[in-house]
Amino acid sequence: MARVGVFICHCGENIAGTVDVGAVAKAALDMPGVVHAVEYKYMCSDPGQTLLKDAIRDKKLDRVVVAACSPRMHEPTFRRTTEEAGINPFLCEMANLREHCSWVHEKAPPTTKKAIDLVRLQVEKVKRDRPLNPIRVPITKKALVLGGGIAGIQAALDIANAGSPVLLVEKSPSIGGHMSQLSETFPTLDCSQCILTPRMVEVARHPNITLYTYSELEKLDGFIGNFKATIRRKARKIDEKLCNGCGVCQQKCPVKKIPDEFNEGLSNRPAIFVPFPQAVPNKPVIDVANCTYYKTGKCRACEKLCPTKAIRFDQEDQIEVHDIGAVVLATGFRTMPTSNFSEYGYGKYKDVIDGMKFERLASASGPTGGAIKRPSDGKEPRHVVFIACAGSRDRLKGVPYCSKICCMYTAKHAMLYQHKVHGGQATVFYMDVRAAGKNYDEFVRRAIEEDGVKYVRGRVSRVYEDDGQLVVKGVDTLLGAEPVEIRADMVVLATAVQAQHDAEELAQRLHVSYDPYKFFAEAHPKLRPVETNTAGIFLAGACQAPRDIPETVAQASGAAVKVAGLFSQPELTREPIIAVVDRQPPPVFSSCVGCFLCKSACPYQAIEEEPIKNRNGDVLKVVAKVNPGLCQGCGTCVSTCRTKAIDLQGFSNEQVFAELMCI
Amino acid sequence: MTALRIGYYPGCSLTGTSRDFGESTRVVAEALDIDLAEIPEWNCCGSSPAHMIDHVMSVALPVNVLLKAKKAGLAEVMSPCSACYSRLVMGKHEVETSPAAKAQVEKVLACPSGALDGLPKVLNVIELLARISDRIPPKVTRKFDQTVACYYGCLMVRPPKVTGFDRTEDPVEMDKLVALVGGKTIDWSFKTECCGASFSISRTSVVGRLGAKILQDAVKRKAEAVIVACPMCHSNLDLRRGEINKRLEKPADIPVLFITQVIGLALGIPEKKLGLHRHFVRVKFPTKTAPTQAVP
Questions:
Q1: Which residue ranges form the domains of chain A, and what is each CATH number?
Q2: What does the pLDDT read at residue A535?
Q3: Residue A618: is it exposed, middle or buried by C-beta count within 10 angstroms (0-12/13-18/19+)?
Q4: Quick check: ipTM above 0.85?
Q5: Is residue B286 part of a domain?
Q6: Nearest residue in B to A471, CA atom
Q7: Mean pLDDT throughout A97-126?
Q8: What residues in chain B have per-residue pLDDT under 50?
Q9: Do B189 and A465 lie within an 8 Å CB cutoff?
Q10: Residue B15 confidence (pLDDT)
């Protein structure tokens, strides 16, 4: 006969405030098998755990039920305590009296009655528990970093410097991301490329980093420590080993009029191109959609003129499968297109641009060489209006959240404009200036006080064109809601930061949860900000929420530490809550009849076919077998099995039925 | 073609200051086989007088109108006047989304609970014409060959979550109707700007200032007429033209027509039946260099 001890936690007032814990302890003593039941203020505290250990020893308990909070909170704690007292940790169960009872009900007798029922369930379950041992699985000590912006670069470098190999996968032809497009960075105004390119070069040269640009993750199978990543390396149509990056092909390509993505469409590029001069790797790609050869079958100018004969028109995409131990998602963000804003001209006015375009105009490597010239006619704008919160904090037509980076980059834009265009005037329309960060508010004050940027608190209701000039109609709410009308030469919208177009699809493919705005969700908003709910997949940068560069870098390093921590263990320990297929002595061998319905039902491809052979090697029977490394213990196969040959360890049919029958 | 029977709420303007809107709506409806069933014993929609003073009345009055329509067995109600349309949709929205407002209105109207369920759907005139737009082209006898500015005003599209009609900042449904009868519309910036609304009575200078901006842009962009679908917009741009012209360098003689009048002209309905003679600014269009062919 089992000797069960029941330990009821008050959790301060959390449980004891609604549940009569004394009555629960008294009722527990009447349950068959229970020989000891006590209540205590904080079971998870040191004295609480000592109390548990002492009771196990003194009362000769062999099974334990802790009635406290969710097992997600403290199951590891109490299992460790039971193990320390000499009992198999899987003979300890938790009844969730807090999340499932006291927090969701009012103080009343039925609440206590429910608490007693919850304890009774676990008592019935624990009596049928069998000792289990954790499963140990090896770890592949190689990380996959998805996305080659500053987040991915930082994470890859930190993991690589900690000594583990990293596979950095970037979908565009070069790493660098949005940061490589920026002109200067707030709050120091240091040139973005000057601080980024050394990191990019470091990535390319690092012995522990394998760089796959122009590549995408097709599929991710497996689980923490043992992922299998399928990567598509898109054909650059170039032999990267032969190409020396001389650039002749770009000069000679007859197609010249393709909007340059790196310059946000403000200039054109050829069909064979390197996105920008400091690109890593500095190897061109052929844009198949626009290349004359792929369209008409003629041209091949680049092939004829390439001094190293590196052009490969027949090159095809390659699929590679890599064993990976951990994944860092650093896929970044996009900004809301200006065509979303009907009141600002639906993107039809050439001189209404977004922040990224302004970055390219202000950048020394940009299409104007850093001179501020408006896109429509190349004239220097004498008056520029910046509209903050274009789409952000707009529940009706945009997104309800604050995009966080716009206040700062708008101040930076206005400041750069004042520095570059003498006698010009920058006006910023804003809702609030959110400049929380080291030296951030000082930066905004500098824009206003030293550089003479005009800040108008109010929204802009409309931007329209009148005689080739933009008219900005807004309101100054600090001047008693006075309407303001400004005739501007250029308008810059600080458009909202949004998740990538394919973020939702990627999240579903990787089984990572995401929020209503398709940003990837962290495991806990405060305490686990770089982890996802999927073990072994971590987050860095703006794929999780709008972030600026310092935050992104900090988070990327955080994610890298998580990966390095994981890789520092010799092997992974997993809970043995997995399915097992019945095995019996000959001649039955197993009650499994080999229908393999379970195999098609398993979401984790954990079920294999095992031939049972005699001594001569003849196959007698083929039965199902669960791969303990892959099984996640979901139980789908158990409910599918027609002969009840599969059971779930720790949640057996017998246990679940016993729980149901006792209430 | 089967006649479409629809509840009709003219409101006060369409029998008074905007008789021409009412007249043209009726004749156009008749020509397009729409049976306008006037709501029996309709009352005030609760616009400016009520909604500036008493919120409950501003909901109870339009709901009472819809209740009468429901009792008359009408599933949908069309109201040409934008202010009436706004009150009717807002009233319906309020009782359908707020149980507290619903209870209050039930008390005011002394109606049993449940009486306010399933109130008729409310349409504006553009919505109605857009729905039966396939009936219009075959009946066009005289192409409306003018370049015009479609002016929607504020109430028809706002608030977007209540009206659910067209694109809030840049509506296009009226432009589509004009194109359907052969007209061209300009792309301009004042489609939904304020006309001054009821300041027409209390502060005419405001109406003059706002109207001047609207007409100035329309004229500059070579519009030959401004097309509206709201009595308030019409009277502010038409009746208050003197006040507007005081603020314009060159007085504007651009006519202001209701969308129903435009359709009516294209359908070959005589000007008098459409009430064009009632306008303060004479309805005349610049003569075209080449006479246009009638649409066969």
A1: 4-127 (3.40.50), 143-234+317-332+500-568 (3.50.50.60), 248-305 (no CATH), 334-498 (3.50.50.60), 579-661 (3.30.70.20)
A2: 87
A3: exposed
A4: no
A5: no
A6: B189
A7: 96
A8: none
A9: yes
A10: 86
List the single residue in A with minimal CA-CA distance to B168: A342
pTM for the model stands at: 0.80
Q: Give the tens place of pLDDT for each residue, A413-464.
A: 999 999 999 999 999 999 999 999 999 999 999 999 999 999 999 999 999 9
- Expressed as residue numbers, the domain containing B71 is 4-125
Indicate whether B152 and B274 sit together in one domain.
yes
What are phi and psi for residue B83, nearest 5 degrees?
-65, -45
Residues B158 and B75 in one domain: no
CATH number at residue B245: 3.40.50.11810
Contacts of A396 in chain B (CB under 8 A): 160-161
CB-CB under 8 Å, B217 with A466: yes
- Closest Cα in chain B to A346: B170
Q: What is the pLDDT of residue B292?
A: 53
- What is the CA angle A398-A399-A401, rounded to 5? 145
Domain count for chain B, please give it.
Answer: 2
Give residue B50's pLDDT: 84
Q: Is residue B289 part of a domain?
A: no
Which chain A positions have a beta carbon within 8 Å of B193's beta carbon? 462
For A559, residues 6+ apart whose C-beta sits below 8 A from its C-beta are A155, A328, A330, A530, A538, A539, A540
CB contact under 8 A, B167 and A396: no
Judging by beta carbons within 10 Å of its beta carbon (0-12, 13-18, 19+), is residue A424 exposed, middle or buried?
middle
**Given CB atoms, is B71 within the 8 Å cutoff of chain A?**
no
B114 and B47 in a common domain: yes
User: Which position has the token pair 């004394």?
Assistant: A22
Q: What is the chain A residue with the closest CA to B158?
A: A396
Asked if the C-beta of B217 comes within 8 angstroms of chain A's C-beta atoms, the answer is yes
pLDDT one-digit tens code per residue, A359-401: 999 999 999 999 999 999 999 999 999 999 999 999 888 999 9
Q: Which residues of A touch B213 (CB under 8 A)?
A: none
